[in-house]
Amino acid sequence: MTIREGVHARCDVGAVSSSGGAGNLEGQSDEPLSPRTIKITTLCGSDSAVAKVMRLLVAEDSDAWVGLYRMLEVVKKDVGNEQALIATCWTNKPEYNRFTRTANSVSAVGDAARHGSEKDPPPENPMTLAEAKDYLYRIVQLWLQHKGV
Q1: H/E element holding 10?
Q2: pLDDT of 21 strictly over 50
Q3: 3-state class of 11 per DSSP?
Q4: Three-state SS for 102?
Q5: With contact defined as beta carbons under 8 Å apart, do 112 and 64 qualify?
Q6: How many Cβ atoms from other residues are within 10 Å of residue 59's Cβ?
Q7: Whole-angstrom distance, CA of residue 66 vs CA of residue 61
Q8: Per residue in 92-112, pLDDT tens?
Q9: Which residue of 8, 41, 107, 125 shows the fewest CB atoms closer than 10 Å?
Q10: CA nearest 104: which of 127, 87, 137?
Q11: Closest-CA residue to 71 (of 8, 145, 137, 144)
Q12: 3-class DSSP state for residue 101?
């Protein structure tokens, strides 16, 4: 099961509706929603962090460094801070640093970096964007499991 399945539904005044990219409502879906999608949708109504991550997953920049970093920030804040996130064992300090340093590095990712100029040297082994997506989506999946979905 992928995260994308969980973001194709949204809660709209209590009704479950199909949603397109960037959160544009498209009308009722002919496909039945999975139980997990329904749980995520329901949780969005009571958990602002889950709702925000679901919105960010369908945002235009969701597959870009900036969008991925935003999602990590929401999860990190929800669990407490960087140390708390690492304590969950969903990531470790070297992996976390590799992601964040790559995302921030103009040398590593060019104009797609979160920063416009180099603040710190890039990591020795920068993440590819594909690795970053896998890393972030794994953390989001584990976070959602931790929340019971």
Answers
A1: strand 9-12
A2: no
A3: strand
A4: helix
A5: yes
A6: 16
A7: 7
A8: 999 999 999 999 899 899 878
A9: 125
A10: 127
A11: 137
A12: helix
